[in-house]
Amino acid sequence: MITRREMVAGMATLPLLRTGPVDAATATPAISRLDPALDKLIAPDASVTVLARGFRWAEGPVWSAKGNFLLFSDPPANIIHRWSRAQGISQFLKPSGLQTPVPPEIREAGANGLAFDDQDRLVVADSGSRAIVRIDLSSGKRTTLADRFEGKRFNSPNDLVMARSGAIYFTDPPYGLADGDTSPLRELDFCGLYRLAPDGSVALLDRHHRPNGVALSANESILYLALSDEKQPEVLAYALDPKGMPTSRSLFRDMRPQKAAGGSGLPDGIKAGPTGHIFATGPGGVHICTAQGELLGIVSTGKTIANCCLGEDGKALFMTSSDMLAVLPLS
Hints:
Layout: H1 4-9, E1 30-33, E2 49-53, E3 59-64, E4 69-74, E5 79-84, E6 88-93, E7 111-116, E8 122-126, E9 131-135, E10 142-146, E11 148-149, E12 152-153, E13 160-162, E14 168-172, E15 191-196, E16 202-208, E17 211-216, E18 222-227, E19 234-240, E20 246-254, H2 256-260, E21 270-272, E22 278-282, E23 285-289, E24 295-300, E25 305-311, E26 316-321, E27 324-329
Antiparallel strand pairs: 1-24, 2-27, 3-4, 4-5, 5-6, 7-8, 8-9, 9-10, 11-12, 13-14, 14-15, 15-16, 17-18, 18-19, 19-20, 21-22, 22-23, 23-24, 25-26, 26-27
């Protein structure tokens, strides 16, 4: 099976950005309703709308409640884009990650996962710079928060989520490196799930073959981790103690059935809603689950969905899907 990142490598040229309704010849959005309880989240007549197309690989969406706009990344293009209902799509930041010429050893030079801190500064999993970086949007100042564990450089930080304490949980697979696991740039011989404390210390929480998307439950008692692993396409749940450290690990969602059925993609981006529902991208689209891991339905855009986020006061599910940005209204 061709993995998400192998598809990225083949996207050498794509059309310029354009907005408008979905083209049925290239994508067929669908909502698979597996449980009537899904109707409380997605109205029976709701449908997916494509907002923009033409990206190399759309990723890392985050909603700004303060500014009423969406930011999302395109790591291979080293760009962060902005979308709002008032102004549509525009380029927001370039370069978004690596600030120097891109060496051949780097495949994804741009920012990937995005988040806002409590001062409305943008915090990014910078795949190109191989670091967790904070960007002051008013001044443009970039501050490296962490780029090493025990003196060794990260592989290519991929996704992150911020706790109310200011701690940052993030993942570090080798997707941004041209040669992946065998890259000569690698200094760590494993891929990790980490916690960056407010004091700047970095703790390794777990090791996995392909750790990817991360999310926190609304009460921050559970940390969710998606594994983009062909052999282990799962979402895990870590119980956290009051200090934000894991005490146990369990299987939250097994996506092997959807993968076996030919669903496009692997577990990737994941978000937790205020009601406890989990929105996890994976084979076939966005898997919408209860807090107990029961699958209510799957939202598809017709293309692999890398990541998603909630926006517009929880009334919209934004999806970064291959070369597209799409949205689905929520109830």
